[in-house]
Amino acid sequence: MGDTRIVVDAMGGDYAPEWIIRGAVEAVNEGAKAHIILTGKEAVIKGELAKYTYDTSKIEIKNCTEEITCHDAPVQAIRSKKDSSLTVGMNMVKSGEADAIISAGSSGAILAGGQLIVGRSKGVKRSPLAPLIPTTKGYSLLIDCGANVDARPEHLLQFAKMGSIYMENIEKIEKPRVAIVNIGDEEEKGNALVKETYPLLKECKDINFVGSIEAREIPNGAADVIVCEAFVGNVILKLYEGLAKMLLGEIKKAVMSSFKSKIGGALIKDSLGELKERFNAKTKGGAPLLGLKGLVVKIHGNSHNEEVKSAIFQCINFSETGVNAKIAEKLSEEQA
Amino acid sequence: MGDTRIVVDAMGGDYAPEWIIRGAVEAVNEGAKAHIILTGKEAVIKGELAKYTYDTSKIEIKNCTEEITCHDAPVQAIRSKKDSSLTVGMNMVKSGEADAIISAGSSGAILAGGQLIVGRSKGVKRSPLAPLIPTTKGYSLLIDCGANVDARPEHLLQFAKMGSIYMENIEKIEKPRVAIVNIGDEEEKGNALVKETYPLLKECKDINFVGSIEAREIPNGAADVIVCEAFVGNVILKLYEGLAKMLLGEIKKAVMSSFKSKIGGALIKDSLGELKERFNAKTKGGAPLLGLKGLVVKIHGNSHNEEVKSAIFQCINFSETGVNAKIAEKLSEEQA
After folding, report:
1. Which InterPro entries would you find in this protein's record (chains A, B) (predicted)?
2. What band does B115 get if pLDDT is binned at 50, 70 and 90?
């Protein structure tokens, strides 16, 4: 299999272009089977690349004159800023010049560009944003955390199928356990959406549905694929991030509060390192937009080189396992 | 002001009756200005009370022959088990024989009993369940975490008013900052419910509305009153609980993983104690059902004596500050 052609939006994110470009170079230097296309202001990118030694045949630059910022209205920006690093990259994925695009830029613009430029595969009603969240058992896929709120039951059913294909192929989990976020574990509980969706999931033969999951059980890894409507998914994702950050911060404060506890803190530092790393969500790649005609991966706005590198390896894995093709096949079947 | 008459459901909860009754006795022995009515099987309660020394004029027993369990369908249980410790207690609040009821029993039955037996105050469209959640700045009121999902904008507006009255009177916060849970902080973001509710909150003169709050900011104490629909509130509350428990558990595991870190753990134990206590949510009282004709307080199913005691003091505070009357006055005004 040849190199996966991956656009990296060099201008998107809090630490662009410096740390974004550094991540791309590191991936190449660590043997990523990828051909990287950096989109953005050529002079700036050239200046950054000049800092490193790498196989220059593996990284090319696609010059663009515009940038989309977080202050732009997403849909409008995608439509009007035709020469932005994000729009140009998205169009390369659409035309087949690239297999994937990674961006740490405006979330709204990434989601809009995925739908409007790259486009959904046949049969896919909505393209969900599906990050992996850390649990005591490993990682669970939280689907959907995107911007299309007020989903219908048939959307959630498709999310369940797409999420299952993802976890089976990328995370190598056999028969991933699918659960729907609910406020109790009985079938008759929940809001109107959950009540209507539950029987669809229960009857679906393509997935291993294990029933409702209460939010309390999510951190325990009680399901591999956690299905929910985007508003709820967004709340879960953001609260996960905020609460983990806050608790780790409060622990640090407690440790620094006395001489005795400072010494204690020094002694547990190594053991806590792995935990902190997982909860700082710096290494488990980006969140893919599933069900599109190409691969779009959103990484956190505050991403550094590590996240970019990790997302590049994730794109290669995604591309080599043919997840998008499998999703398109499964969901277009349904239409027939 | 005379003693607050508080029913304590002696049969509800994982640690009933032993630890529930112990909490009631301790409250009395610590000088609570309360008259306690323990509802449940008289012989059992007598046996427990015999273990303690206390002012016997402060605690009475109301014998009941039935119990509502978590396996009972809530509404049906409230209607059919007329001689259960919960139903009898609720009826005492309704008739005015008691000012308040505290229960660690079936959440569904407590919520159903509050609405069906005690009843909503005039003008109150829905009675929200409003727990306090820990933040870096103290506590925020999360309203609504109850069982009535799929709320309408006018319900959320009332929640905002009730929550403000609560935080002003009970937590003594001047002009409590009210925010609505959203997936971005711009006014035009959100699902249909949030978009319709936002202008109502913005125009409301009775509250100090500060706009949207992303779930990420909740642990930072970015608002005092956090308004949301019950499904979302439930997810936030349960995730808070589950994630805090999981993280503290993982930290413990990390500390126990080596000899060096065990010593470190022993040195930071005291400093971490306060944090653990706050996040184990053992001491900040129960969650009141607001807007009823009497006071109904739900405490966690796994409550011990500390939670019962804390809820008793909370009921006294609630009763003495006249929060329910203030809510009834404010919301009935609106109707006029």
Report:
1. FA_synthesis, Phospholipid_synth_PlsX-like
2. very high
Contact across the interface for A239 and B239, Cβ inside 8 Å: yes
Q: How far apart are alpha carbons B296 and B94 in whole angstroms?
A: 10
Confidence (pLDDT) at B280: 66
* Angstroms from B233 CA to nearest CA on chain A: 10
Query: pLDDT, tens digit, for every residue of A292-327?
Result: 999 999 999 989 999 999 999 999 999 999 998 999
The predicted pLDDT at position B95 comes to 96
Q: Indicate yes or no: CB of A136 within 8 angstroms of CB of B250.
A: yes
**Alpha-carbon distance B276 to A333, whole Å?**
51
Longest Cα–Cα distance of chain A, Å, equals 69
Per-residue model confidence (pLDDT) at position B190 = 86
Convert the pLDDT of each residue in A11-36 to its tens digit: 999 999 999 999 999 999 999 999 99
Distance (Å, whole) CA B323 – CA B167: 10
Q: What is the spatial distance between Cα B255 and Cα B248, in angstroms, rounded to a whole number?
A: 10
In this structure, of A56-70, A263-277, B95-109, B244-258, the range with the lowest mean pLDDT score is: A263-277
**Which residue among A235, A246, A263 sits closest to B219, beta carbon to beta carbon?**
A246
How high is the ipTM of this complex?
A: 0.90
pLDDT given at position B84: 96
> In this structure, are residues A196 and A153 in contact, taking their beta carbons and an 8 Å threshold?
yes
Cβ distance of B183 and A215 shorter than 8 Å: no
Contact between A245 and B219 using a beta-carbon 8 Å cutoff: yes
Q: How far is A240 from chain B (nearest CA, A)?
A: 7
- For residues B141 and B225, the answer to whether their CB atoms sit within 8 Å is yes
CA–chain centroid gap for A234, Å, is 12
Asked if A264 lies within 8 A of B260 by C-beta distance, the reply is no
Across the interface, do B246 and A190 touch by the CB < 8 Å criterion? no
B152-173: per-residue pLDDT in tens? 999 999 999 999 999 999 999 9
Confidence (pLDDT) at B264: 80
Considering only alpha carbons, which residue of chain B is nearest residue A194?
B231
Choose among A215, A243, A258: nearest Cβ to B219.
A243
The hierarchical CATH code for the domain B4-124+291-323 is: 3.40.718.10
Domains A4-124+291-323 and A132-279 share a fold: yes
Homologous superfamily of domain range B132-279? Isopropylmalate Dehydrogenase (3.40.718.10)
CB-CB neighbors (< 8 A) of A218 in chain B = 239, 242-243
Domain ranges of chain B: 4-124+291-323, 132-279
